[in-house]
Amino acid sequence: MKMESFESVWDAIEDNPAEAANMKARSELMIAIRQRVESWKVTQAVAAKRLKLTQPRMNDLIRGRINKFSLDALMKMAFDAGLTVSLKVRKAA
Q1: C-alpha to C-alpha distances, 55 to 21, 27, 29, 79, nearest whole angstrom
Q2: Most exposed residue of 17, 62, 69, 91, measured as fewest CB within 10 angstroms of its CB?
Q3: CB within 8 Å of 9: residues ≥ 6 apart
Q4: At 9, is the secondary structure helix, strand, or coil?
Q5: Does domain 9-80 have CATH number 1.10.260.40?
Q6: Res. 59: pLDDT tops 80
Q7: How many CB atoms are located within 10 Å of the residue 47 CB?
Q8: How many other CB atoms sit within 10 Å of the CB of residue 51?
Q9: Whether the Cβ atoms of residue 72 and residue 22 lie closer than 8 Å to each other
Q10: Which residue from 37, 49, 42 is spatially nearest to 82, judged by alpha carbons?
Q11: Distance between CA 75 and CA 71 in Å, rounded?
């Protein structure tokens, strides 16, 4: 049996490198936004208002339901949460 190793779980489960990169970016943004929201020490309803979301949508974010959020939506939420996002682009190996 051949053992494979991957840089991230997304590299292992996604069909192509572009989708893996998208999922990595989305998951990193979701984690950062969730951590920011938790630091506010407010209810989900209050946090949802700050991020201009409905409470059920906020719950999806907190629960990590990544397939419910586009990269664009998460970028906007990060901005609304007072986060700065930077992007690193480099030549593929």
Answers
A1: 28, 20, 19, 18
A2: 91
A3: none
A4: helix
A5: yes
A6: yes
A7: 22
A8: 20
A9: no
A10: 37
A11: 6
Listed by start position, the domains of the chain span 9-80
Q: Biggest alpha carbon distance in the chain? A: 52
Q: What is the pTM of this model?
A: 0.85
* Token representation of residue 6: 């991957």
Tokens standing for 21? 């990169």
Structure tokens at 67: 């397939």
**Tally of CB atoms within 10 A around 56:** 9
Q: Using CA atoms, how far apart are residues 73 and 19, in angstroms rounded to an integer?
A: 17
Helices and strands of the chain, counted as H and E runs: 5, 0
| % of the chain exceeding 90 in pLDDT | 70
